[in-house]
Amino acid sequence: MTEKDFEAIYEQYKAQSQAGNFQTNQYVEYGKEEIVAVRKNDDGDLIAFKTNTGRELDYITALDEAKAGKLANIDVFHKYGREIIRSEPDGIKDNNLDNLPEF
């Protein structure tokens, strides 16, 4: 097995993403809404979501719709003993749910 320079390969990957030389999942699949804004409580927890169609979803509704595959680029995973909504990891911090504008 040949030894690879993992650090150099990772730096190459980062340079490509910074230069915009990569494909991202920036499209919205037909029939799916995209979360474009969030509402946070005083602790900074996400408590509601606004979609590109203008719908405002409470956390439970957004969770149900994400599990049903109705929201684009959103994952549901288990943490803290419950289900959590998060954006799909794509290396772009600007589209993370925490970084979206608030409504």
Shape by Cα distribution: elongated
Across the major sheet, the strand order is 1-2-3
Structural class: alpha+beta
Q: Give helix % range.
A: 10-25%
Number of helices: 2
Any idea what the radius of gyration is?
A: 17 Å
* Strands, count: 5
| Average residue-wise pLDDT | 82
How far apart are the first and last residues' alpha carbons, in Å?
Answer: 53 Å
Tell me the major beta sheet. 3 strands, antiparallel
Low-confidence stretches: 21-26
Would you mind describing this structure in some detail?
It holds the Pfam family DUF3892. InterPro entries: DUF3892 (IPR024997). It comes from Pallidibacillus pasinlerensis. This is DUF3892 domain-containing protein. There is one protein chain. With 103 residues, this protein is an alpha+beta fold. 22% of the residues lie in helices and 26% in strands. It has a domain at 31-99. The strands form two sheets. The chain has a three-stranded antiparallel β-sheet with strand order 1-2-3. The chain has a two-stranded antiparallel ribbon with strand order 4-5. A hairpin with a 5-residue loop joins β1 and β2 (46-51). The termini are far apart.
